[in-house]
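Supplementary Note 3. Input sequence used for the single-chain structure prediction.
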Amino acid sequence: MDSMDIDHSNRVEPPLLILRPVNPMESGQGLPYAPENWPNPGDTWHWRAGPRVSSKGHFVDRYLYPPKHLPGLDTEIMPKNKVFRSKLSLDRYIRRAFPDADVRKFFASFSWKIPCRDGVMHQKQALLPVYSSDEDPMHDNGSDIVVCKAGNHNCGSLMPQSESDTLPSMPCNICCGEPTFCSDCSCILCCKLISLEHGGYSYIKCKALVSEDHICGHVAHLNCALRAYMAGTIGGRIGLDAEYCCRRCDATKDLVPHVNKFLEICQTVEYQGDVEKILNLGICILRGSQRENAKELLNCIESTVIKLKCGTNLEDLWNGDNTPNIWSDLSDSGEVKDNDTLQSLQDVTPIGPIPFNHEAEMHKLEEEIGEVLKALRTAQECEYQIAEVKLHAQKECLSDLYKQLEKEKSELSRRVSGTDANSLMTNVLKRLEQIRKEVIKLKEMEEVAKGFGRTPRGVLEDYFHLSIED
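The predicted structure, written as discrete structure tokens, is reproduced below.
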């Protein structure tokens, strides 16, 4: 690399820069927001604005990408992902990689602060304190105020960001260009805010790598994705199997690990209605999947929902399940990935001369299986009772209609002509049509012979009054 001209003068004359306001997440190269021709002629630096805006109208977060040929980019000198997120990290790099460089002159050659085009709008929104880094005294944000573009007080962009965070999100010129859309907390499908309630189960974030230094980063409500045929099991050219397809980058994400957390989340939820809402969302995501792990998880969730419908309270529902969540302890290949889990398996496995009471263990297993079968029988009996009542009620309805039809046909046979005969004929035809519809309804109700878990949702909701939410 060519040697760099070093200016030992203490006098720094900054160039005249025209600071053009930019949009959140906008990027560019060179002046006025990145160095040019440094340290060698022709060297290009890139910049990118972040999502947070101060009350003074400039971006709190900004990123600087150096030329890839500079020294020290693959060592501890360079922050993660080869991007500078603060003046302090850049200052450290310059002093280590170019000890003879004039750091003051370097920073004076461009503007670190980037004005926001919508700065005035952001000042009118809810104001939150800046989370500044204690290790970055060069980041001047003493009285700055941070806001979210969408006005969300709980936006992830307002949280402290360290250099150990994941890759930054890729700037988007479509939805992110909207003045009130925030890629960190606005659903890409409906543009409404996501909710962090109950561990944020209701939304999914796309972390697909879309470039060397960026992820997609867009979020979406799972309900919105299901309605838009962007999640769940979708055939045809989309080809999803318990997966999510991001509308921004078309990357697919496996939803089974996400749904697997639902049972754990539900154990911390106090209101039964919320538990059913969470589990029903999991059912909608997994229904129709051909993958074995998705099918097993679906059966587990459906049996839990049936217990709740049959009157099992939340305390009893979770107290009987002391088994650790096996899905969270296995990798996609089926191997144990957690050392603590592996040790716990070794602790209960008879190895070598370790004392082991076979009869006691078998007795314990028999009791556990007995409890499982008892719970299964209770759930099935509850289903049977519901089906029995509704099917017999439908039979009685048809019986009454047939009796009414016989009565009307008898009256019609005694009236050969006249207005009354025409009226009776109309009634008979209407009764026949009514009977036809009720017979079709009974045939649809008989789908419960497969079990409630495999009966179409519309049948359960319309004929058995079992509300199944999305």
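The chain is about 40% helix and 10% strand. The mean pLDDT is 75.
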